[in-house]
Amino acid sequence: MTDAWPTAIDYDPGTKILHVTFENGERFDLPAEYLRVESPSAEVQGHNPSEKQIVPGRSKVGIMNIEPVGNYAVRLIFDDLHDTGIYSWRYLFELGRDYATRWETYIKALMSRGLKRDP
Questions:
Q1: Which among 2, 1, 39, 3 has a CA at the least distance from the CA of 18?
Q2: Domains in the chain: how many in total?
Q3: Which domain CATH number covers 48?
Q4: Which of 28, 48, 111, 115 could make an SS bond with 56 (beta carbons 3.0 to 4.6 A apart)?
């Protein structure tokens, strides 16, 4: 999908899940931890794929605020005070579509470095 457009974005602080529904009917339930460790910020992604940072210790992170950015994205403000990632509609769709693969890659990267999800 090249022009992913959300029709609903809702955050449940109890489960720490961001629910995103797109106009094509697809709905993704994205854990705050996953969104935090896959933040599109340069702090996490670097400036090229070889610079991507593995962010440990975020299993309890939540989202404090969701701010619209124009009509193309949202900025997620996390309770660990990370606030520099701008999540475009396309990126949110990709995160939902690729959740299983990205999450598995993240867990393997943590394990290979002796890092943990828990703070």
A1: 39
A2: 1
A3: 3.30.2020.30
A4: 115
Structural domain of residue 49, as residue ranges? 6-113
Q: Are the C-beta atoms of 79 and 63 separated by less than 8 Å?
A: yes
Q: Looking at the domain assignment, is residue 96 inside a domain?
A: yes
**Residue 118 falls within a domain, yes or no?**
no
pLDDT digits (tens, 9 = 90+) for 25-52: 999 999 999 999 999 987 888 788 788 8
Read off the pTM: 0.93
In the chain, what's the furthest Cα-to-Cα distance?
A: 40
Strand extents, DSSP E, the chain: 6-12, 17-22, 27-31, 63-69, 73-78, 86-88
Angle at 117 between CA 112 and CA 118, to 5 degrees: 135
Sheet with 27-31, strands from edge to edge, namely 6-12, 17-22, 27-31
Q: Which two tokens stand for residue 50?
A: 């070889």
